[in-house]
Amino acid sequence: MKRCMLALFTLLALTCIATAALAGIERVPRTPPQQSPPQQSPPPYSPHPYYPPAHPPVHSAYSQPRPRGPGIVLRGGLSGYYMNDLNNFLDASNALTGTTFSRVDGGGSFGGGLRLLNSRWIAFEADYDRLTGASQDYYANGKIKLDANMVMGTITLYPFYGGGAYFGLGGGAGVIQSDAQLRGVNGQVVALGGWDPAYYAFGSLDVPVASWFAFTVDGGYRWALVQDVTSAGYLPPGTDLDWSGAVFRAGIALYAH
Fold this sequence. Notes:
Blueprint: H1 2-27, E1 69-80, H2 84-97, E2 106-117, E3 122-131, E4 134-137, E5 142-145, E6 148-162, E7 165-183, E8 189-210, E9 213-223, E10 225-226, E11 241-242, E12 245-255
Antiparallel strand pairs: 1-2, 1-12, 2-3, 3-6, 4-5, 5-7, 6-7, 7-8, 8-9, 9-12, 10-11
């Protein structure tokens, strides 16, 4: 009997201890698992020194993003001319009649055009240039004006970039129309007319200054020979006027922004 009472008391004590243990476990607060804060990736481009750009821009810090799209170009420059036929005629006239016409070896130019910068590396242009030049006899008041109008389409590729500037190579083709005039001693004005194809090969330099503005410089060689100009008999038959020669131009480009 005593053994049964001891076993019952032991079972009851174990039951109380287990119940207290379970109650103690339930009273312990459950702490949620620690979650690491979400990592924030740096922005694709930020001027902050601690967040270097993940994809740095193509242009360096001292250059401007190159303008794109349509725009206009205004230029002026100098050109060399190869007026071989005309210079031979003037030399002969000076020797035979005592005139003092100067030889024509070059002149100025000015003009403009429409430009389409389709991408960072290629530009299309439709240009107009007014070529100027003159030879004058100050004693007899005779003068030859060697003006011409030239319309040309060009394509320029810019494969090189450095120092905030784009370096390119280009070429173009168009038409040159002679607007030259000869004014005789008696004051009569004779038009020296004609037109022919013209071509231009050049190197180009573009310096962007703002998203809508850039400086542009180009230089190369122009082929612009007008054959057998009309002269009403004042010049020998078959006389050519040749505006071919080295070219240097500088100007500005304005873009729609």
